[in-house]
Each structure stands twice: as structure tokens, then as C-alpha cells.
Request: fold
Amino acid sequence: MDFALILTATLLIILGILGSVLPILPGPPIVFGGLLLVHFSSKHPFTVDSLILFGLLTILSAVIDNVLPIYATKKFNGSKKGVWGSAIGLIIGLFLFPPFGIIIGPIFGAFLGELLDDKSPNNSVKPAFGSLIGFLSSIFLRFALSIIMAYYFVVEVFIL
Reply:
């Protein structure tokens, strides 16, 4: 039974790392699911405190993942319409054009929102670029968290 749990957890962790850079899969939650599976084995390599910490970080990464592109749009001089356009573009892109819509939607939405705010196309590009920077930053954060959890998994299960 332990072998099956550890094998499944390993597959989930690999899938989660891939999912942290692919927009269609929620990377950190999948990796965290792998950690939880190992916790149910007889080995119990993780403390409850470490699982709670990883769980909270996973939830935080999911929140940041959705907020960061909108925040970056605002930081790159996006108007309220640009910020709203980024948020609406994220939602529309997520459902209408998966997996690439989650990338293209906020950028296109921020650009259109800025155009609706009577900005020129040249001035609308900067907030759209901010949305892209926010998206790439959220990918980096998801990937970093997934790698950290995978590291602890490897150390606790295979090395110690």
C-alpha cells in the first residue's frame, strides 16, 4: 500500500511541477495533494505543522495567481478600465480559450480597457505589458513553491 501511495504521490508531484508552468493545471495544489498522499502512508514523513504551512502557501499562491496580473496592470499605469479589462479578460480567457486564454485574456482585456479609457494604442500597451509581467511573475511563484514542496518530498521520502 505504501508503494502505491508513494508512486501516486510522485506522479502527482511531477504533474504538479508541470502544471505550475502550464496554465491548464493548478500546479501547487496538485503537488500538495501528493504530499497529503504520502502523509497517509505508514512512513508519515511530514509533520502536521509542515502540511498546514504548505497548505496555506498553496492557498496563498492560488490567490496571488489571480490577483498579480491585475495588480501589475495597475502598477504599469493602468486605469480602472484597464484593471477591470484585465480581470474580465482573465475570466473570459479562462473559459473560452483554455489553456492560452488565461495568458492572452488579461493582456487583451487590459489593452481594450485602456482603449475604452480613451488612451491611444501606444499608451494602452504599457498596462497590457504589466498584465503579462504579472502573469509571468505568478508562474514563477507557482513554480518556486512546487519545486520547494517537491524538494521536501524527495528529501523526506527518498533520502532520509
